[in-house]
Structures are given as structure tokens and as C-alpha cells.
């Protein structure tokens, strides 16, 4: 016996579930014995077809209810009359829909009801579609996002073009920043005895007058949140809150965002903060902004950046070997010995370029000597001494999305909302709590 299947849509009276008001066949097909992984399940195109017809039926029924209870004009209280239906479009996650919405009018004062999806809802996109577009736009290029959306929708859709993804991503990113700022005064979290703060920066190619602009990023977490995978090969954070900004606003947004991130992690006046940065003055200004809000703070020049500065200096092998010995002193927190050895190394150098490179390193260490600690001792005691133990903040929030392709050029207005969105997605529970509010008024 040959078998087939039929999927139906029914609307019914909830007071009398057995009373069917409308019925429609959504999909009808044959049932065949599967022979491979393609014909065992419903094909991608059939799944989209089913979603399309099911959504058409549901949306058409909901469209009939929009003005169902409007009988009198809200302006003059006279009877409203029907005068045709308005064609309207609605875009969902996988499908596009053409709807007809009843128009109502008052003959006395001329009042008309809202009769399109946009005028009624403020947008033509479903909230879930905007959420997905914003998430993809935050993690992939806008053109890559367009391709991914097309792949899952099984077709290219105008609503998913890269310009639309860019528009939604920027709109949602701006809303996330507004929501965070509004919530600052009502953040409640379990008090943290200790927090770790990493602040770092990265330069992004720009379309503006300058060749590049600096984006700052911060991550705040509790020390106990830093875990290792079962094999012990990689550290990760099971809870963190992030902030980022490229605004030219005297660091107001990155400071505010970092304070919010710290409050979400449990910052109080009793909390001790261990702050790590690469030595840049603008990064330390962000750190300093949190000092009045905590009990005390330990500021540490990030060992990863210090070690990389030493490793990246191009010198002859003889001088490089002596520089490695200086690194040994710094690892143990012996700053004065390291500075003496650097002075001696400078005298041994003959090339002006080599002298200048050693001089720059000397200034860097001297400017940050108060923040150079005994890294070896901290490592032995299981204390944080480098942001690399957790993750590279710049790499995760900025570089991975904004510098993945050398041709990328950004404006501050285009990049900053993207950073706000990436920071929210990277923060514990932040995106899951905010996305519905963030996408609501973005069209």
C-alpha cells in the first residue's frame, strides 16, 4: 500500500475546541522507504515550504484580529466603516509574507486606522530575525552574514542583504549601549571579594581623516571564574562582563561600560581589584576610574605585553642574549637591576637604530616600574599576572571581527555600535537579557 502524509492548519474556537473555524492543507506528499541521508528527512526546500505556508495561515488569521474590536472613532466617537484592505509585507526568520489588513475610516472626521505592519508594529521584521541578523553582523562581515542567512533560508532574500544586516546591527548595538547605561543605577549582584580587570586597545583602519583609530576594550571577572578545560590545555572564563568603545569622547563610554561590567560582576566598596594593562596611558585612565569604587587595587603591567615588547626588539644575537637576561630580572620583579642592565646594553650597542630601540624599551619599563611585580612569585601562588591567562580582550572583542580582512575600513559611527553588541554578546547573560528590548524599536 502506498502511503502519503498531509499536514493541516486549523483555527478553532478556544471555548469549543471541537468547532473548527478554518482548515487548510499546508503540505501533502508521499511517504517512501528511505535509501540515504537525503530522503530520510524532509528536504530543506520542503521544510521552508512548510514554514512558509504555516506562517501564511497564522499571519493571515492574526491580521484579521488587528482592528476586530475597533467599532468607534477615537477622535469623534462615530462609527468606523470598512473601506478596502491594505497590502503589507512582513519578514520572518526564513520566509517573506504578503498580508492584507482591513482599513477602517471615519466618514465624519476622516480618521483612519493604521493599516500596514510597519505603522502598526513599527517594523516589518520579526524580533527573532532582527536578533539573528544582529548576532551574525556582530560576529561575521556583513556580506558573510548575508550568505549565511541565504543558506538557511534556502534563497537570497532582499531583507537579508548586507546593507540591511549592517543597519540592524548598528541599530541594535546602539540600543544595547542605551539599555546598559539606563540600568547602571539598578544593577544588583552578589558582592565580589576580588575582581580581575583587563584593559587593552587595538588600532583599526578608518575611512576618516586619520589612518587608524584606537578602540579600547575591557573585561572584568572573578578569579574563580578562570577555569581550565579537562586536558588542562586551555584556560577559559565561565563568567565575565565586557565593555568596548571607539568613541572620541574622552573615554566616557569605555569608562562607564567598564564600571557597569564591574558592577555586574559584584563590585562594591569592599572589593579588591587586580588590574592588568599593557602600559598605555589611556588604558590606565580607565583603570584609575574604578579606584574610588573599590576597597583597594593592585595595578600590574601585563606580563604578556612586557614579554612581547622584549621579544619583538630586533637586535644582533649578542645583544639579544643579554636582553634575555634582562627579561629574567623583570620576570622576578627586579626593575632597578633591569634598568641598570639596559643602560649597560645601550653602551654596548654601536648602531643608532639599536640604541634607539633599547632606549624606547628603557623608557617603557621606567614609566611602568611601579606596576612591574614579581611575576614568578604570582605564578607560583596561582595569582593572575597576565591577561593572556584568560584571553586576549582585543582579539576577542575587536581584532577578530574588525581586522580579519586588511581591506576593512571603519567609521566611528559604524564601528562603535558593533563593539557594544560584541561586548554584550561576550558578557555573561547580557545579550540573553537585553536582546528583546534592544531589537524592539529597531526597524
What's the number of helices?
16
Report how far apart the termini are. 52 Å
Molecular shape:
elongated
How much helical structure, as a percent, in the residues? 40-55%
The strand count comes to 11
Report the C-alpha radius of gyration, rounded. 30 Å
Class inferred from helices and paired strands: alpha+beta
Overall pLDDT score: 91
Main-sheet strand order equals 9-6-5-10-11
Query: Stretches where pLDDT falls below 50 for ≥5 residues?
Result: none
Query: Strand share of the residues?
Result: 15-25%
Order of helices and strands: EEHHEEHHHHEEEEEHEHEHHHHHHHH
Largest beta-sheet characterization: 5 strands, mixed
Give the arrangement of secondary structure elements.
Elements: E1 3-13, E2 16-31, H1 37-40, H2 44-65, E3 81-91, E4 96-105, H3 117-121, H4 127-139, H5 142-153, H6 162-183, E5 194-205, E6 212-221, E7 226-228, E8 235-237, E9 241-245, H7 252-264, E10 272-277, H8 281-288, E11 296-301, H9 303-311, H10 317-331, H11 335-348, H12 352-367, H13 375-380, H14 393-402, H15 412-426, H16 430-440
Parallel strand pairs: 5-10, 10-11
Antiparallel strand pairs: 1-2, 3-4, 5-6, 6-9, 7-8
Amino acid at each position: 500500500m502506498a502511503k502519503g502524509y498531509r499536514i493541516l492548519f486549523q483555527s478553532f474556537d478556544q471555548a469549543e475546541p471541537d468547532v473548527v473555524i478554518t482548515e487548510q492543507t499546508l503540505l501533502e506528499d508521499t511517504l517512501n522507504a528511505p535509501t540515504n541521508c537525503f530522503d530520510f528527512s524532509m528536504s530543506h526546500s520542503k521544510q521552508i515550504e512548510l514554514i512558509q505556508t504555516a506562517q501564511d495561515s497564522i499571519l493571515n488569521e492574526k491580521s484579521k484580529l488587528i482592528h476586530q474590536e475597533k467599532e468607534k472613532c477615537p477622535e469623534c466617537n462615530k462609527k468606523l466603516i470598512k473601506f478596502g484592505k491594505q497590502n503589507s509585507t512582513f519578514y520572518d526568520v526564513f520566509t517573506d509574507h504578503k498580508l492584507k489588513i482591513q482599513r477602517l475610516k471615519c466618514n465624519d472626521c476622516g480618521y483612519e486606522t493604521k493599516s500596514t505592519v510597519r505603522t502598526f508594529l513599527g517594523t516589518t521584521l520579526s524580533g527573532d530575525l532582527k536578533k539573528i541578523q544582529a548576532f551574525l553582523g556582530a560576529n561575521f562581515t556583513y556580506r558573510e552574514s548575508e550568505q549565511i542567512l541565504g543558506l538557511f533560508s534556502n534563497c537570497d532574500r532582499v531583507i537579508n542583504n548586507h546593507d540591511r544586516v549592517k543597519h540592524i546591527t548598528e541599530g541594535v548595538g546602539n540600543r544595547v549601549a542605551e539599555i546598559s547605561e539606563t540600568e547602571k543605577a539598578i544593577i544588583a549582584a552578589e558582592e565580589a571579594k576580588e575582581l580581575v580587570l583587563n584593559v587593552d586597545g587595538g588600532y583599526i583602519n578608518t575611512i576618516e581623516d586619520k589612518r587608524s583609530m584606537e578602540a579600547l576594550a575591557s573585561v572584568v571577572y572573578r578569579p574563580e571564574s578562570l577555569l581550565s578545560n579537562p586536558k588542562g590545555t586551555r584556560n577559559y572564563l565561565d563568567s565575565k562582563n565586557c565593555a568596548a568603545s571607539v568613541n572620541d569622547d574622552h573615554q566616557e563610554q569605555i569608562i562607564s561600560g567598564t564600571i557597569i561590567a564591574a558592577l555586574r560582576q559584584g563590585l562594591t566598596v569592599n572589593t579588591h581589584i587586580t588590574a592588568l594593562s599593557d602600559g598605555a596611558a589611556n588604558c590606565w585612565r580607565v583603570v584609575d576610574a574604578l579606584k574610588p569604587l573599590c576597597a583597594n587595587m593592585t595595578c600590574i603591567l601585563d606580563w604578556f605585553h612586557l614579554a612581547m615588547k622584549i621579544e619583538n626588539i630586533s637586535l644582533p644575537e649578542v645583544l639579544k642574549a643579554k636582553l634575555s637576561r634582562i627579561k629574567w630580572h623583570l620576570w622576578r620583579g627586579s626593575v632597578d637591576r633591569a634598568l641598570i642592565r639596559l643602560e649597560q646594553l645601550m653602551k654596548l650597542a654601536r648602531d643608532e637604530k639599536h640604541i634607539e630601540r633599547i632606549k624606547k624599551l628603557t623608557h617603557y619599563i621606567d614609566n611602568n616600574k611601579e606596576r612591574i611585580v614579581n611575576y614568578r612569585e604570582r605564578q607560583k601562588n596561582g595569582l593572575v599576572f597576565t591577561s593572556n591567562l584568560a584571553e586576549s580582550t582585543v582579539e576577542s572583542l575587536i581584532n577578530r571581527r574588525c581586522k580579519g580582512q586588511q581591506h576593512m575600513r571603519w567609521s566611528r559611527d559604524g564601528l562603535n555600535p558593533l563593539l557594544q553588541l560584541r561586548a554584550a554578546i561576550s558578557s555573561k547573560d547580557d545579550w540573553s537579557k537585553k536582546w528583546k528590548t534592544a531589537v524592539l524599536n529597531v526597524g
